[in-house]
Design brief:
This protein has four helices and five strands. It is of the alpha/beta class and about 130 residues long. The strands form two sheets. Strands 2-1-3 form a three-stranded parallel sheet, covered by helices on one side. The chain has a two-stranded antiparallel sheet with strand order 4-5. It is globular. The relative contact order is 0.18.
Length: about 130
């Protein structure tokens, strides 16, 4: 992965770096609502879990390929969950697998032999665009 993405960092580093950057701007972890919109694929849970370690429970508005399918209703509900005088951190996006051999677009899943496609939904969405 580092050969293709030289500046790559772990999900742990990303979650902690986000807090280091946002804290001086007034984002208090006790008063910040974490909002996530990641693909429902289990490989995305690591990122969500690391962010929850920093910000506590998340308000999830995502779906397939990370699109916030909850729409206006989800954003309206989210607004009612923000702590008094608090902030919101929204983290969203699809995922891209990189398997143990460094193949981009594939991932090694627990209990499976070899690697398999990662985020076929994002690929399908990309191919459906004109």
């Amino acid at each position: 992965a580092k050969a293709n993405f030289p500046g790559i960092i772990t999900t742990h580093q990303l979650a902690r770096s986000l807090n280091v950057i946002l804290a001086p701007k007034g984002f208090d972890t006790e008063k910040t609502l974490l909002v996530t919109s990641f693909c429902c694929d289990e490989v995305c849970r690591d990122m969500e879990d690391e962010l929850k370690e920093v910000y506590g429970q998340n308000f999830h508005i995502g779906g397939i390929a990370g699109f916030p399918f909850g729409g206006n209703s989800a954003f309206g509900a989210m607004a009612h969950h923000v702590p008094h005088d608090g902030s919101i951190v929204i983290v969203y996006g699809p995922h891209v697998g990189i398997d143990h051999d460094g193949v981009i677009g594939k991932v090694n899943r627990r209990g499976h032999h070899g690697s398999g496609a990662c985020c076929n939904t994002a690929k399908a969405a990309l191919h459906s665009l004109p």
